[in-house]
Inverse folding.
């Protein structure tokens, strides 16, 4: 295979295969720096606070939240959708970019997939604790019981149960299958001790045999082919929690693809937030290059524009429909008591990513980092606007009310952030953060030591 | 590398014959069977939309691949480029709708007071409708022409500025197209059911356009290979085209199903009338639509071997071309021609007429230069592409 | 030189590895295994590996998942405990699709990964010993069958003359 000379090298520094192994494994095998300790302390503190808030919610009940009869869903479901959305980038990078043969994914897919798993765990917390009687959460699964009852398969909430469970399982499997050869690499670098035994077990006896690689590659491609429609279906089903209703602002046919685009949008922003820090902290700048950041930014422009397009469509159609309740829903969002949330959403989600059309900004790491945080804040507000503004003033004016979060709800959200970052900090110490064997397989083609043409008849 | 498609007299004559035949049979159908004006003009609209969609889908294919630095498609980019040259023809044909639109767009000919239509009058009025129409086409034609001009320039002089400029126009086209494909499908198709609305509609029509376009590209590759050209297009390239056809057919189905499920589930009368009209009066067509556009491509293209076999993929592409024509039919006919709709001589011959025109325009453009864009920085990569 | 059950040839790059594999196949040597730090493009074709049937496993179990998922929902809502939900019919096909799809994906994914692990004999094993710990880093190895003492390292060396190897033993 030949690569066009105008392509930018994806792996810099004229690396050899051995360089790849040690560049990626060294930061894990040495002692962590001060920054790691500081980071994990902060995130663990948030996690502990969140754990206490979970206990408080279950012990005292949902009354400790700010929700009321009109606004039945608020921070809980906002957080749920926000976290699931973030998780989608991992699957997009692993699966969809693999199917589109984008070699630049090899430096970021492992970390992004891990991010997906942690994000889905954070997300899953909310449906479970918002039930009130969380200890009876197993009711959501269809199992034979003495009441002769089954779950309501007609309900999107049940579709969610299946979608999220499947998504978590498949993401976990996909991540782990990819990880097996790299654990083998790690196992072989550790000479002896308890760590070696642990990695021996986790590596499932991987020996690098060509037949195993063949099966592994095919399984990976097949999982990618499955994960692609899966990622589309999961966030579509989440959007159907809203779209199958009759509430203006909730019931609109564009929700499934629009939510998926928004999920990829916020997910990539989170990947950028994590990767810009990780590449610096673990000296992986030769692998996660500015070119990678630029490519991720391009996907952000694309998905951000799709989200913007969806907003314009909704605005237009709400007028075009001639339905006064739809008109009101839009007007209330933009000028009602939650107007500030709406305008944060609009500026952060629609205007800011458009700045990435400028190449200088696309390739600037500081700007990208700030923008990625801005986008995630904007996307949180998007879900908040959709959920709360549509609920707090719907058909019956006598039911109109306001909503304010309590410290318990805020604490739960902070707790999930704590869990997410703690898990990520642990992950980077325990498993290789970049897919070692995948980078090696594209090293010749995409690295900056281009092979001479004669070498290519080793086909 | 310098091979050029010869638009032989034989092809020219066959196409002209088919064109004339199509036109004559259409006229015969009108004279003999006396279909209503609604049905005639609905067919004009259907064919306009169908072939416009193929041309726009081709432009989208090029723009998105160029802006993504994709290499594999480079060797066949002249094919979709020549498909985009149909856009000016589509423009003229759409302008013809001025003469027949009151038969098809009931909002334009409605006498009396309808509260819903009154509310939409600012958007759905004939002058603004045509201003928008002109605006869309000017943008599409200009941007595709600019992309094509840079490709031609690149063929004559190996200068990377042409490639870079082409990428800029690709980006501009994508932004303009993203907005206008939605607004144009609201104008030209959704407004047929003037009391109805669906926010996903524009995206649903767009993906249908893209799949139809891919199918046409595949058939064009098949035809040219049979005629002895394009020897450098290998199963590896066909594989990637098939993957796109397969996955976007599934994506189309997902959009079709989402629209249906959400409207069915919420059961709001303003919205459900759309589907009730189709399922009660156009039942067979309505259900054949997902069968042809999902079941067939899904099972026919799921295996690896099938994706690499050009003859097999060409058959699937042909079925999809028919399937998406049926999709447009069930979008357009129930609201415009309503009870008069039938798939008869008029429908078939008009489509044949338009097909011949479209192929004629494509062949003409294709023959105007080498089949490969020399000096394209991704050409070597594309020729040696392995998948 | 004692006769060993196999002869191993070491390389430090995949290009000579592929050339060597081709040469050895020409000379009708039986290659037991080739071990590499990453999947080498073209190796499976050169070794005439039969294409894995894992996708077929995925398709079959996916179909099974679809049938079970859809069938179960249909049974629940028509036979076991029919309930009128939102005015919809008992056999509500559009409602059943999302769960059916998820079951399809779940069954297919788990089946394929299980098949991969079983066929490659991968399982948690704390007594595993790597053939050579450098393989997972940057070393490529061909294992040639020498069960009946058919050949010697010197033979192999001369067969592979001109190809850059690191070691033959």
């Amino acid at each position: 295979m030949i690569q066009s000379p105008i392509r930018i090298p994806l792996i810099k520094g004229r690396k050899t295969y051995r360089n790849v192994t040690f560049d990626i494994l060294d930061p894990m095998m040495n002692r962590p720096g001060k920054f790691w300790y500081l980071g994990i302390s902060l995130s663990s503190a948030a996690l502990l606070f969140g754990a206490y808030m979970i206990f408080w919610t279950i012990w005292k009940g949902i009354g400790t939240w700010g929700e009321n009869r009109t606004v039945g869903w608020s921070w809980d479901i906002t957080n749920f959708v926000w976290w699931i959305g973030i998780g989608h980038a991992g699957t997009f990078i692993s699966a969809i970019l693999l199917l589109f043969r984008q070699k630049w994914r090899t430096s970021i897919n492992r970390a992004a997939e891990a991010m997906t798993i942690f994000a889905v765990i954070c997300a899953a917390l909310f449906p479970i604790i918002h039930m009130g009687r969380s200890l009876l959460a197993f009711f959501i699964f269809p199992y034979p019981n003495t009441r002769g009852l089954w779950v309501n398969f007609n309900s999107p909430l049940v579709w969610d149960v299946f979608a999220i469970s499947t998504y978590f399982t498949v993401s976990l499997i996909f991540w782990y299958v990819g990880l097996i050869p790299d654990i083998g690499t790690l196992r072989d670098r550790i000479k002896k001790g308890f760590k070696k035994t642990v990695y021996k077990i986790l590596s499932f006896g991987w020996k690098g045999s060509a037949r195993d690689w063949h099966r592994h590659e095919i399984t990976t491609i097949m999982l990618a082919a499955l994960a692609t429609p899966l990622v589309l279906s999961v966030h579509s089903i989440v959007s159907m929690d809203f779209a199958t209703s009759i509430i203006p602002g909730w019931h609109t046919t564009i929700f499934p693809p629009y939510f998926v685009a928004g999920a990829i949008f916020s997910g990539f922003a989170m990947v950028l937030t994590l990767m810009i820090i990780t590449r610096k902290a673990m000296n992986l700048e030769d692998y996660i290059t500015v070119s990678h950041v630029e490519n991720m930014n391009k996907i952000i422009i694309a998905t951000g524009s799709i989200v913007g397009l969806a907003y314009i469509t909704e605005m237009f159609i709400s007028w075009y429909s001639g339905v006064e309740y739809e008109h009101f829903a839009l007007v209330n969002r933009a000028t009602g008591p939650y107007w500030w949330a709406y305008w944060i959403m609009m500026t952060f989600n629609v205007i800011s990513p458009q700045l990435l059309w400028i190449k200088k900004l696309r390739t600037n790491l500081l700007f990208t980092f700030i923008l990625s945080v801005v986008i995630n804040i904007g996307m949180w507000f998007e879900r908040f606007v959709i959920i709360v503004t549509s609920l707090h003033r719907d058909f019956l004016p006598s039911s109109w009310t306001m909503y304010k979060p309590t410290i318990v709800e805020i604490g739960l959200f902070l707790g999930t952030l704590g869990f997410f970052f703690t898990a990520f900090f642990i992950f980077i110490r325990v498993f290789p953060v970049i897919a070692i064997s995948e980078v090696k397989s594209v090293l010749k083609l995409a690295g900056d030591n281009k092979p001479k043409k004669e070498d290519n008849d080793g086909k | 590398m310098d091979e050029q498609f010869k638009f032989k007299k034989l092809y020219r004559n066959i196409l002209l014959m088919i064109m004339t035949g199509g036109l004559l049979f259409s006229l015969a159908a009108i004279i003999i069977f006396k279909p209503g004006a609604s049905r005639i003009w609905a067919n004009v609209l259907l064919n306009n939309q169908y072939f416009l969609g193929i041309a726009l889908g081709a432009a989208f294919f090029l723009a998105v691949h160029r802006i993504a630095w994709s290499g594999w498609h480079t060797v066949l980019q002249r094919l979709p480029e020549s498909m985009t040259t149909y856009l000016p023809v589509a423009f003229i044909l759409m302008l013809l709708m001025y003469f027949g639109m009151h038969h098809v767009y009931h909002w334009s000919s409605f006498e009396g007071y309808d509260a819903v239509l009154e509310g939409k009058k600012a958007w759905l009025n004939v002058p603004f409708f045509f201003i928008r129409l002109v605006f869309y086409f000017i943008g599409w034609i200009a941007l595709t022409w600019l992309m094509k001009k840079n490709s031609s320039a690149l063929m004559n002089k190996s200068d990377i500025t042409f490639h870079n400029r082409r990428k800029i126009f690709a980006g501009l086209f994508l932004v303009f197209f993203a907005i206008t494909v939605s607004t144009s499908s609201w104008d030209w198709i959704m407004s047929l059911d003037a009391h109805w609305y669906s926010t996903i509609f524009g995206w649903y029509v767009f993906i249908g356009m893209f799949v139809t376009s891919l199918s046409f590209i595949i058939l064009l590759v098949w035809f040219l290979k049979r005629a002895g050209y394009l020897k450098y297009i290998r199963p590896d390239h066909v594989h990637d085209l098939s993957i796109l056809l397969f996955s976007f057919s599934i994506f189309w189905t997902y959009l079709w199903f989402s629209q249906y499920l959400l409207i069915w589930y919420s059961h709001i009368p303003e919205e459900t009338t759309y589907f009730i009209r189709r399922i009660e009066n156009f039942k067979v067509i309505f259900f054949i639509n997902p069968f042809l556009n999902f079941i067939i491509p899904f099972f026919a293209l799921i295996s690896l071997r099938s994706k690499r076999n050009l003859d097999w993929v060409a058959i699937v592409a042909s079925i999809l071309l028919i399937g998406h024509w049926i999709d447009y039919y069930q979008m357009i006919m129930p609201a415009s021609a309503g009870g008069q709709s039938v798939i008869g001589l008029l429908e078939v011959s008009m489509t044949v007429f338009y097909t011949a025109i479209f192929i004629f325009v494509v062949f003409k453009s294709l023959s105007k230069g080498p089949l490969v864009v020399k000096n394209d920085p991704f050409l070597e990569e594309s020729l040696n592409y392995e998948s | 030189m004692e006769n060993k059950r196999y002869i191993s040839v070491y390389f430090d790059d995949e290009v000579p590895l592929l050339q060597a594999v081709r040469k050895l196949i020409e000379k009708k040597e039986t290659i037991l295994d080739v071990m590499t730090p990453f999947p080498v493009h073209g190796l499976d074709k050169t070794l005439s590996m039969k294409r894995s049937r894992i996708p077929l496993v995925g398709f079959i179990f996916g179909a099974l998942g679809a049938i079970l998922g859809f069938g179960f929902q249909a049974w629940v809502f028509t036979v076991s405990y029919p309930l009128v939900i939102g005015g919809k019919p008992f056999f509500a096909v559009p409602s059943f699709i999302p769960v059916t799809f998820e079951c399809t994906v779940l069954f297919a994914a788990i089946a394929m990964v299980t098949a991969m692990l079983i066929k490659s004999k991968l399982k948690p094993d704390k007594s595993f010993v790597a053939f050579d710990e450098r393989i997972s880093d940057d070393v490529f190895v061909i294992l040639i069958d020498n069960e009946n003492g058919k050949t010697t390292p010197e033979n192999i060396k001369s067969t592979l003359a001109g190809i850059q190897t690191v070691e033959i033993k």
Remarks:
- Chain C has two domains: 6-51+147-168, 52-134.
- Helices of chain C lie at 14-26, 43-46, 54-80, 93-119, 153-159.
- The mean pLDDT of chain C is 89.
- The longest strand of chain C covers residues 6-11.
